[in-house]
Design goal:
single chain, alpha/beta, Metallo-beta-lactamase, Chain A, Rossmann fold, seven-stranded mixed beta sheet, 12 helices, elongated, binds MU-OXO-diiron
């Protein structure tokens, strides 16, 4: 794709990645993604904000062919999907200076072996004049690594945000057209890479609140011509209270745990609690992560296998622990054959979750009356807890 004009003297560059289905060899990308860079022509100086993932380098370098001079490259985030082509750009424009936070400078030297003499490390709030345009660099750590910053173009009131406010969508529409689609993709993206840092992100949102922002141009996905959509969503995801929802990742081997899960889903519905079950044998973990953003309770359904939880259930617990959702309650249900340490093993895997553990329901073999009654009691206890905390 060619460079595309956003406003006078401001261009989108980069690459739309239609085919990728996995990011960081972990995160599902059902809609592909894009790697967005931006080029700004001031009356005196020019600047390139970020680059692209190295596999997209050729397309990106072709976009640069008509550009004779780049004075500055801004690296807002050291991760290679944005920084990985900087060295090639510096080879083409050896007089360019590379602007980053001091922390990003160290990381870029470590990760890409960029020679130190190219760098200008900027302070939080420092400005750079391009002549008739002014860039302001604002530190916003942990979106999504510790070194990240965003860039505010003062005259045009555009916030260039790199990973912050991004979404994984491949499309030919440069600006947001389908708000529902973007909201869902942005929530999935938030869950997968931002949620663990939501307390810092809250502070970043507060820091940006004093800026008049007319457009947000992220490093992935579409540009927001109406930034309230994504800013309000981030406020909700970072500040909001959990909802009256149980996320139920589960797996079954011989149907016993599945029967318990089915009964438990119905019991929760009877109690007025929303449930999002995920069969771990087939589920998209991005959907599971998204559900964790605002669920009050997690219940893991697992058989006991080889004396512990099923490996898929262990994977879900490990993922939840890494993503650190704002979940308040947790329990385990499942069937076992003769014994094991399923609950102890799972409980030991979630030290990051500040949850109250509710009494698990484990039954030997096929569930029957007592097990079903215990599941009804667990559903009632969860409903009561949610009510006490006014989760709606
Ligand atoms: Fe899009 Fe953290 O890289």
């Amino acid at each position: 794709m060619k460079a595309r004009k956003i406003k006078e003297h401001i261009y989108w560059m980069g690459s739309v990645d239609w085919d990728s289905r996995l990011f960081d060899s972990l995160i599902p990308l059902p809609d592909g993604t894009s790697y967005n860079a931006y080029f700004i022509e001031g009356s005196e100086k020019t600047v390139l904000l970020d680059t692209v993932d190295p596999p997209m380098a050729q397309e990106f370098m072709e976009q640069l062919e008509g550009i004779t001079k780049i004075d500055y490259i801004v690296s807002q985030h050291a991760e290679q999907d944005h920084s990985g082509t900087i060295l090639q750009v510096l080879e083409k424009y050896p007089d360019a200076k590379l602007i980053s936070t001091p922390k990003a400078k160290g990381m870029l030297i470590d990760l890409l072996k960029i020679p130190e003499e190219f760098f200008i490390a900027v302070e939080d709030g420092e400005t750079l004049s391009l002549g008739d345009k002014t860039l302001k660099f604002i530190y916003t750590p942990w979106v999504h690594w510790p070194e990240t910053m965003v860039t505010y173009l003062e005259e045009d009131k555009i916030l260039f945000s790199c990973d912050f406010f991004g979404s994984h969508i491949a499309t030919t529409d440069l600006l947001v057209t389908d708000e529902g689609r973007v909201y869902e993709a942005a929530k999935r993206y938030f869950a997968e890479i931002m949620m663990p840092f939501r307390n810092v992100i809250k502070k970043n949102l507060e820091k940006l609140a004093s800026y008049e922002i007319e457009m947000i141009a992220p490093g992935h996905g579409q540009i927001f011509p109406h930034p309230a959509l994504i800013i309000d969503a981030y406020r909700d995801w970072t500040l909001g209270t959990p909802r009256n929802t149980v996320v139920l990742p589960h797996v079954s081997m011989h149907e016993s745990t599945k029967r318990m899960v089915d009964h438990f889903v119905a019991a929760l519905v009877d109690q007025g609690v929303q449930v999002e079950p995920f069969n771990l044998a087939v589920t998209d973990i991005g959907k599971l992560a998204m559900a964790l953003v605002d669920a009050a309770t997690i219940v893991v359904g697992t058989p006991t296998v080889l004396a512990g939880p099923h490996p898929y259930a262990a994977y879900a617990a490990f993922l939840a622990n890494a993503l650190r959702p704002n979940t308040k309650f947790l329990s385990v249900i499942g069937s076992y054959g003769w014994g094991g340490k399923t609950v102890e093993t799972l409980a030991g895997m979630i030290p990051n979750l500040k949850v109250e553990v509710l009494a698990p329901v484990l039954c030997k073999g096929v569930p029957s009356g007592d097990a079903y009654k215990a599941l009804d009691d667990l559903a009632a206890a969860i409903a009561q807890k949610h009510k006490e905390h006014s989760f709606t």
